[in-house]
Structure formats: C-alpha cells, structure tokens
Specification:
Layout (H helix, E strand, L loop, with lengths): L8 H22 L6 H13 L4 E5 L2 H11 L6 E6 L5 H8 L3 E5 L10 H14 L3 E5 L11 H10 L3 E5 L7 E2 L10 E5 L13 E5 L2 H11 L21 H32 L12 E2 L5 E4 L3 H10 L29 H7 L2 E4 L7 H22 L1
Parallel strand pairs: 2-3, 2-4, 4-5, 5-7
Antiparallel strand pairs: 1-8, 6-9, 7-8, 10-11
The structure holds pyridoxal-5'-phosphate.
Pyridoxal-5'-phosphate binds next to helix 3 and helix 4.
C-alpha cells in the first residue's frame, strides 16, 4: 500500500530548511511583524519575476481580487464576466462588491474562458440592458494561461477592464509573455497548495499602472490617504505579514526550477497516459505552471476508487461548477447555458502533482491509472 501525498510540501521544506529558520528568526528579532522589510523586498522581487512595474502583496488571493475590483470602483449595477469552472473566490469577490458575476463558458481543450462565448455573453447582457459590463476576469485554470490575446482584444473593443485571476497560473507563459502583458491587473494566491505558496494565507496583485498601484496601496490599508490619520476611501485590512514574506522570498528563489520540474513530470505523465485517458491539452509555445495535472475520463469514479485503494490520492476540480452551486444559481449565465462547463465537470480528475514527485512514484501512479482503465475495458468487452 502506497502513501503518496497529493502535494508534498515537506520535500520542498527540506530543500529550504536551513535558510528558512534563519529568515523567520530575523523577523522575530526585528519585530516588525506587519509591513516589515521582508514585505518590501518580496514585492520588489515579485514584480521583477512577473516583469511588472508594481507588486502589491496582500492577505490572500481572494482579497487580491476584491482589491482590484474596489480599485476600479466596481459595484452595484456592474457586470463582471467570469468562468463558472473555477474556484468560488473568482465570482464571490464580484458579488461581495455588489456587482453581478456573469458566467462564461470555457474551451473544451484548455478549460479557460472561451472568447467567442464571452462575446455572446457580452451582447446578451447589453441587450437586456439592466447591467453595465465593466470587467472581464479570466482564470489561468490548473496553471495554463488563458487566451489573453483574444480576451484583451474583446476588452478593448467593449471598453472593459481585464483582471487576470492567476491564483493557479502565476508564472505561466505564452511565448515570452505573462498575463500582466495583457491584463490591467493580475492577482495571485500564496495559499500553501498553490504553485508559489507560503505557510499560511497570502496573495498579491501585479500591475504596470501607477495610478492603480497608488489606489491599491491605500485600499490594502483601510483606505489610508497621504495623511495617515485621514482615510480617504473605504478599504480593507489586506496586508501580507512579514513572516509570510520572508518565507516567500526563499520560495521565489526556487520557483523557476520548480516550474521546470512540474513541466517535466507533466510531460512524462502525458506521454505514458495518452492512450488510456484524455491528457491535458497544451497551447503551442506556452508554459503551464501545472497547479493541477488534470485528465478526463468517462470513468473517473472508477479511477479514483482504484487509486484510493492503492494509497494514491486524487481530487476533482471542479465537480460542481459555480453556476450550479446554491449561492451562485441566481447570477446570469451568458447565453443561458454552459454546455462545455457542464460536460467537463463530469469527467475531470486530478492526479498528484508537485515538483518533488519521484520517477518511481510517477510510474506507480501512471500504472495504477492505466490498470484501472484496462480493467474496465476487460469488464465491458
Ligand atoms: C485559490 C484561488 C483563489 C483564492 O485564493 P486564496 O488565497 O485562497 O484566497 C482565487 N481564484 C482561484 C482560481 C484560486 O484557485
């Protein structure tokens, strides 16, 4: 019986162990737990990594989205176009501002926002006339970059802001470009299980826009103005703490090599699983961060059960798309239906994925998937 972790944070911790305790000790010694020097240093390094002028660290990936929406003044009567096949926070933050999330379908290949369906949804909302389209928020699902060239073209055409929810795809590339080369603002999450995670909650926003940067800094700290005793707007407590920034500094150093390791593993998985299941589609000349390695099969429950029996965990992201969930059913669905979203939600299943997955373990997982599929074929023949 195996005991394979879905994500192995211990292996990564061992790699940075020595420096880690030194970095954390330094924070305990200087005592600036909030907005200490590590936060500034991390923001500088993060903006360089993302090739964006400004990085604004914050409390988590959800708050990063909320701060972007607040910075754009989005609220009641506004429509923000989001996928339904995503983590709840993408639409949740829109609803929290009082604006209306409008669900858009995805492409069956990449699971990312379908530009054609976005156009249809925009025209749909325009025709109804009760909501004002304000922004598009695609997600780089499972680490694969959304179709920003097409999406930013639509944003320009309809005069909309483009916010990239890169909680899973921070570091993903299309050619030499990252999401920030197309979007007004990019958000990410440092939740421990994300490709770049800390040891608690954390997040960040990246932008090239000086004015948005200024507003975001204020919003992150209760809407503070130039005079710290005069709050000029309604904001939140959205700061990242110094210990998390210290940890992230170390993790950012090895992030690039970890993305490479994830790619190597993903490509090996795909090469050996291609004949057994539907393996992830990769956009030409792109680099995924492989937040998840997600296959599709009509028999995913059988695969999950057999792998579980062998001590191999799997996960389903997402078995229930947002437009089917209780809190989100009342929000509009572009064009009335999301056939691709509904279909893939019944077929996806994610396999263990992290940069420290050993070759032997990869083979164990692959063999288990192949056997569960073969066993099914024998049974039905
Ligand atoms: C994880 C995630 C978030 C939220 O990040 P938190 O740091 O957990 O708040 C938002 N969007 C997507 C797509 C995510 O995967």
């Amino acid at each position: 019986m195996n005991n394979i972790p879905f994500i192995d944070l211990k292996a990564q911790q061992a790699r940075i162990a020595d420096e880690l305790s030194k970095k954390i000790d330094a924070v305990l010694t200087h005592g600036q737990y909030i907005m200490g020097p590590e936060v500034t240093e991390f923001e500088e390094k993060l903006s360089a990594f993302a090739t964006q002028k400004h990085a604004i660290s914050c409390s988590n990936g959800s708050d990063a989205i909320l701060l972007c929406l607040l910075a754009l003044g989005i609220g009641k009567g506004d429509a923000v176009f989001v996928p339904s096949f995503t983590f709840a926070a993408t639409a949740e933050m829109v609803a929290l501002t009082g604006a209306t999330p409008v669900f858009v379908d995805i492409l069956p290949s990449t699971f990312n926002m379908d530009p054609d369906h976005l156009k249809l949804s925009l025209e749909d909302i325009r025709k109804k006339g009760d909501l004002k389209p304000k922004a598009i928020m695609p997600v780089d699902l499972f680490g694969q970059i959304a179709d920003y060239p097409a999406l930013s073209k639509i944003a320009n055409e309809f005069n909309l802001k483009l916010i990239s929810d890169a909680a899973q795809g921070f570091g993903a590339k299309l050619g030499k470009n990252q999401a920030g080369d197309f979007a007004d603002m990019v958000t990410t999450s440092f939740f421990p299980a994300k490709p770049l995670g800390c040891y608690g909650d954390g997040g960040a926003i990246l932008t090239n826009d000086d004015e948005l940067h200024k507003i975001l800094l204020s919003l992150r700290n209760h809407g503070q103005g130039e005079d710290r005793y005069d709050n000029v707007r309604i904001g939140i407590n959205g700061r990242l703490d110094s210990i998390q920034a210290a940890i992230l500094l170390l993790k950012l150093n090895i992030f690039e090599s970890e993305i490479e390791a994830r790619n190597k593993i993903a490509h090996y998985y795909s090469q050996r699983l291609r004949d057994a299941v539907i393996t992830p589609f990769e956009i030409e000349n792109s680099r995924s961060t492989w937040a998840q390695y997600t296959i599709m099969s009509d028999n995913r429950d059988k695969i999950a059960a057999e792998l579980k029996q062998q001590g191999i965990p799997t996960a389903i992201y997402y078995s229930r798309p947002l437009h089917q969930q209780t809190a989100y059913k009342r929000f509009p669905v572009g064009g009335g239906i999301l056939p691709v979203t509904d279909d893939v939600a019944n077929k996806v299943i994610s396999l263990p994925m992290h940069p420290y997955l050993e070759e032997e373990t990869q083979d164990t997982i692959i063999d288990a998937v192949k056997n569960s599929v073969d066993a099914r074929e024998c049974a039905t023949n």
